[in-house]
Amino acid sequence: MFSVNVRDHVMVAHSFEGEVFGPAQRLHGATYVVDATFRGPELGPDGILVDIGLVASELHEVLATVNYRNLDDDDAFAGMNTSTEALARWVADQLAARFSGDGRLSGLVVTLHESHIAWASFERSL
Question: Half-sphere exposure of residue 62, counting CA atoms within 13 Å on the CB side?
Answer without folding.
Answer: 26
